[in-house]
């Protein structure tokens, strides 16, 4: 599997376009949101920390959904079929893809936290950073599974719009663009149930001196299980059918 | 040990029977051409042989194992007609990766050399010409030193010169005691490169034998004379017969005998004998079966 992860990471290094969407855009949004007053309706210092988490998460999720759903292309050009004739078990291919996608998700997390410290002067304890960095990075795992599920279940026609819909929908409703408090209360009520909110809320709580809540952990765990189930379903279907070779 | 055993293999796309009860055994070390026109069932047969398509009925064994087990053991290499190249990867990346996953691979440099890709290791797949991409598919199929190499119309995208170099490489590979199975439209290609030719048509095996045997059966000629009110189909060698523009056009597997018989019957008017294309040969074989 290490050989496959290496192959995928070398491709990733050859895909600078991905960085525009997953690093550059969240970074610019972050600097805009926090340096133009009243967009978030929060105090500037609060906004600098709060939006750091939102945009790091937004970028990480974007990387995972976009990258893992590259599976659609792998399927349509016959790459997965080719791999099935090698000694590499198909499950390891999927896992390798997921690991490489997690590598891609690390970039926005590091970039946004770096910008928060260097440009916006965000200061957190070492303990807080040690919690927030893994929470933002590894906590995004459910979205890697969601990306894999979409990659197996979508077709080359539906993949792009479906991906964008899921990405923007989950991000906006989950409070990654504007805080849930700034959204209508019924939207916020739905938003609180989404994996995007539970994922970011763990880091928000740590950033403002608390600890991840049990309900956030539980919500994310339920979504993790659901996305894993969906990914397994899609994977099994593709192994069985010729249409998705 | 047989490299390939296909028993009563069938497959249908909807109501269309693509493969109809094919039974075929290939001993290890043989080079076999699967010859047939478009839609003969060549690709479908190869997909089932490789375990990529579940057979509707029948059984596949590669070296006594299921195709999946043979692939897992690194015994199988296959070259698809198209696709199969991971976007934004380089030639070297793909070969290095495959080198790492097979149990007894050849060095990357050897695979590059065998496929005449030396110097292109750093090129991404998007920037390869059609012929270079095809050679990369070949390198990817052989780098694991598979015991069975399956090639689906391998020279379709190549020009004459590249074709020659390609077959030299394949013969070199087969010369090391490996089993090679390739599909093709071209009788000449099958004749020049295979120990054995299996002719498929409409999902069935029409002929199976050495190149010389099959060639004798599929080498047909068109004999045409001015049409008389006669039953030409009883003449020796005639397998098909049509009337076109006042001429009787006979497809014959033995044009000498046909012409002699026409002469004896006094039917020899304005004779023309021409070599027939492979399509006519298929037609001839199909008629012979009936």
CATH architecture of the largest domain in chain B: 3-Layer(aba) Sandwich
Distance between the termini of chain B: 34 Å
Give the % helix of chain B: 25-40%
> What helical percentage do the residues of chain A reach?
over 70%
C-alpha geometry of chain B: elongated
Cα-to-Cα separation, first versus last residue of chain A: 20 Å
β-strand percent of chain A reads under 5%
Give the overall shape of chain A.
globular
| Rg over alpha carbons of chain A | 18 Å
Question: How many distinct domains of chain B?
Answer: 2
> How would you state the average pLDDT of chain A, rounded?
90
- Strand percent estimate of chain B: 25-35%
From the helix content, strand content and strand pairing of chain B, which structural class follows? alpha/beta
- What structural class is derived from the secondary structure elements of chain A? mainly alpha
Which secondary structure elements does this structure contain, and how are they paired or packed?
The complex is a heterodimer of chains A (245) and B (290).
Chain A: H1 2-13, H2 16-35, H3 44-68, H4 71-76, H5 79-83, H6 90-118, H7 126-138, H8 141-153, H9 159-173, H10 185-191, H11 195-207, H12 214-240
Helix pairs in contact in A: 1-6, 2-3, 2-6, 3-6, 3-8, 3-11, 6-7, 6-8, 7-11, 8-12, 11-12
Chain B: E1 2-13, E2 16-27, E3 31-35, H1 42-49, E4 57-62, H2 67-72, E5 76-79, H3 91-101, H4 108-114, H5 130-142, E6 148-152, H6 160-174, E7 179-184, H7 187-193, E8 196-201, E9 204-210, H8 211-218, E10 221-226, E11 238-244, E12 247-252, H9 255-264, E13 272-275, H10 278-289
